[in-house]
Structure formats: structure tokens, C-alpha cells
Design a protein that fits this description.
The structure is a single chain. By secondary structure, this protein is α/β, with parallel strands linked by helices. Helix content is about 35%, strand content about 25%. The protein has eleven helices and 13 strands. It has helices spanning about 30-40, 45-65, 80-90, 155-160, 165-170, 185-200, 225-235, 235-250, 260-275, 280-290, 325-340; strands spanning about 5, 70-75, 95-100, 110-115, 125-135, 140-150, 170-175, 200, 210-220, 295-305, 345-355, 375, 395-400. It starts with a strand and ends with a strand.
Length: about 400
């Protein structure tokens, strides 16, 4: 009788102890492959996203960092909050990273289908059985079995059905805090760590110890369908470019001076006024009106803080238990980032956006379908399931020895 054996590609590190190096050169994540996969298996999108993210989450983090992409970092605990905040941030033209702090599933083992024609550059913690591929909806698939803690199904459904264009462009991403080494009870610490690693700007609902709190009215578009909103972002990039450039200028003064931030805010105020009233942006406003939407503004406070005075140069993991695998890897990544940026002290920008996500409601009931299938296994036997995996093929393959 044939004997099954599990193997990993030669030279690949083990899953739990795999190194994640911020200076490693990696390719861009395969967003199209993930999006097609989630579209084809609508009842198992949370598993598809989980499998894809193991390896591609780290790939995205390192690739964006090397490309100088600085995201906005936002904490949210429901799909309603994500939807509400995204509509108020997407016009800015920079990626929005949501740190999801809501509930995720208990540890479970699942069986799922993997597209035979997709690149295998993900899947740490999963076992793939190639065998004879199944033909479903004119596409070939093979079986994978693995350990999961899944976000609610409505989270990846939002990515597919309401933000697919932005996800495909790499402009929006949702990460479950517990699977990338952060406590959902301490989101501020997690956002601080991500800010140091990515060079991004965290959005905080509380002002905190700001040395300068500068008022700013920021525009957003309300009332558009997801399809019209995505078309607005893609078709009116030229009309939005001066406004977006002014916002990027504000973000670029992240570690410089208070006066530089004030000058950038003054420039941004001018561009907001142009977007709302100037003839230069008339086509933009006409499109919004035709789609029965409105251009509104939301009050914003931009805080300019000093790293030492605000206590921002310390260790965000101080007093927290970073003993779990994901937490330990995040702590190591954070130390690497700090070593690469020894002059992080100085002036630091934070956005104190009163997004009002606590008022956001909505969401859909998670759907159950044929896939994924839950397999009976005790949680303590399941092993690791976090997303902070090396940006390489981590799939284990079942091979037959004759």
C-alpha cells in the first residue's frame, strides 16, 4: 500500500521558526489570483483569504515598504466600521490598512479547494493533495487541508463585492489583529508597531499629547454605490491628483518639523477648497451628482508630536506578552525596522480623525456552503495558524512513495 509523506521545498525554513527579514527582496503579492479565487468560491472566501495571506501578508508588508508605500492604519471591529471608514479615506489616494479587532473563529481544521492554475506562493500551515484535480465551473481544483482561525465571512465578501478594484490595486487590506501578533484589546500598541514597520500613519480616535493640533476639513463622497465609487476612484485620478499630492506631502513630513507640517496642511486646505468649489473639479462633482451622491467634509485634527515628549520612541510591546509565535515574529520585525531607522525621534505626524466608526452599523450574516468543510480535530492538535509567515511557498504537499 502506498505510503504518504509530507515534504517542503528544499531549503525552506520550518513554519514556526521561519525568518522574516525586512530587507529581503520580494515580488508584489498576487492580488488578482486571490480575488479570482474568492469570487469562484463565494461560500469559502474567509478560508481562501486566510490561505493566500500566509506568506502574502508578509510579502505585501516588505514589498510596500521597499517601494516607499506609506499607508493609513485604521482599527475597526466590524464590516460596518470598515465600510464607513473606507468611504471617508479612499479619496486620499494612499493605501488603507484595516487592523480588524473583532471576533475570529475558534481554532479549527478545514478542507478547502485551491485553484490548479493559481501560483502557489502562500499557504503556510496547509497541506495540499494534488492527485486528480476536480473540475468545478470549468476550472480545475485540488484539495488543501489546514488549520484556521477565520474572520467572519462578510469581511472578505466586502473586499470582493464592494472594494474589489481597490484590493486588486493593493489600495485596501484587512488584517486580523490576533493573526499578525497583536492583541485586539490593545489596538493602539498594534497600530504604533505597524506604523514603525510600514512608515505609515495611524489614525487615532483620541487626541493624546499633541504639541500642535491643527484643524482640517477633509472631503469624502457619500451616497454612491460600490461600483460607482470604484469608478470614481479610477476614472477621476487626474482630477484628484493635486489634492492627493498635497496629502502625500503632508505625510512625507512624518519625521521633520512642526513648521513643515503646518505648511503642508495649509497647502492641503487650498486643494480641498479647489476640489469642493473650483471649476477645475467640476467634472468630478458632476459625476458624483449624476450618481446621486454628495461631496461632504469631515473634521480632522492633525497632531504634530515629538517622539520623546509623547513617549512614542519606546517599545510598543513593553508590558505585553509577545510569547506566541506571531507576537514574537512581529516583535522581531519591529526591532529590525527600528534598527533601519535609528533617527526615528524628532517630529512625528499623527492623524486624529474623528471617524465616528462607533456609530457605524451594518453587515451581513456569514454564509455557510459546501466549502469549507470543517474536520473533527481537537484544537490543541492543530498547530500554528498565524499570517506572519516567510514570503515564500509554504504549502506542504502530500506525495506518494511507491
Amino acid at each position: 500500500m502506498p505510503e504518504e509523506a509530507l515534504r517542503v521545498p528544499d531549503g525552506e525554513p520550518g513554519y514556526e521558526n521561519g525568518d522574516v527579514v525586512l530587507t529581503e527582496e520580494v515580488s508584489s503579492p498576487s492580488y488578482a489570483a486571490c480575488l479570482d479565487w474568492m469570487r469562484d468560491l463565494p461560500d469559502g472566501r474567509a478560508v481562501s483569504f486566510d490561505i493566500w495571506a500566509r506568506g502574502n501578508f508578509t510579502r505585501r508588508l516588505i514589498y510596500n515598504r521597499e517601494q516607499g508605500v506609506t499607508p493609513l492604519l485604521v482599527q475597526a471591529s466590524s464590516v460596518g466600521q470598515i465600510r464607513w471608514a473606507y468611504r471617508r479615506l479612499a479619496l486620499l489616494g494612499v493605501p488603507v490598512e484595516f487592523l480588524y479587532t473583532g471576533p475570529i473563529s475558534a481554532p479549527q481544521r478545514v478542507a478547502h479547494l485551491y485553484p490548479f492554475d493559481s501560483p502557489i506562493d502562500c499557504g503556510w500551515g496547509y497541506i495540499a493533495a494534488l492527485g486528480d484535480p476536480a473540475l468545478i465551473r470549468d476550472r480545475r481544483w485540488f484539495l488543501v487541508i489546514g488549520t484556521s482561525r477565520l474572520m467572519p465571512e462578510e469581511i472578505p465578501t466586502w473586499l470582493v463585492e464592494e472594494a474589489s478594484g481597490a484590493f486588486l490595486r493593493g489600495d485596501v487590506f484587512v488584517s486580523p489583529s490576533e493573526l499578525i501578533g497583536m492583541s485586539p484589546d490593545r489596538p493602539a500598541d498594534g497600530l504604533t508597531a505597524l506604523s514603525d514597520v510600514t512608515g505609515g500613519v495611524s489614525i487615532s480616535p483620541e487626541l493624546g499629547p499633541a504639541l500642535a493640533a491643527l484643524d482640517l476639513e477633509m472631503p469624502f463622497v457619500d451616497g454612491l454605490t460600490p461600483a460607482d465609487f470604484d469608478r470614481l476612484l479610477t476614472d477621476f485620478g487626474e482630477a484628484l491628483e493635486d489634492f492627493r499630492a498635497a496629502f502625500r506631502e503632508l505625510m512625507s513630513h512624518y519625521h521633520e518639523s512642526e513648521s513643515a507640517a503646518k505648511a503642508a496642511i495649509s497647502q492641503l486646505r487650498d486643494e480641498v477648497e479647489i476640489l469642493a468649489h473650483s471649476a477645475r473639479a467640476q467634472r468630478f462633482r458632476d459625476f458624483v451628482a449624476r450618481c446621486r451622491g454628495k461631496v461632504r467634509t469631515i473634521p480632522t485634527l492633525v497632531g504634530v508630536l515629538t517622539a520623546v515628549g509623547a513617549g512614542l520612541s519606546g517599545d510598543p510591546f513593553t508590558g505585553a506578552a509577545a510569547t506566541l509565535t506571531a507576537g514574537g515574529i512581529l516583535w522581531d520585525i519591529w526591532k529590525q525596522a527600528r534598527a533601519l531607522q535609528p533617527n526615528l525621534s524628532g517630529y512625528r505626524l499623527r492623524l486624529f480623525w474623528q471617524l465616528g466608526v462607533h456609530r457605524a452599523r451594518g453587515g451581513s450574516k456569514a454564509r455557510l456552503g459546501e466549502y469549507p468543510k470543517k474536520l473533527p480535530t481537537e484544537p490543541e492538535e492543530l498547530g500554528p495558524y498565524h499570517w506572519l509567515c516567510p514570503p515564500s511557498n509554504g504549502m506542504l504537499f502530500a506525495a506518494v512513495k511507491k
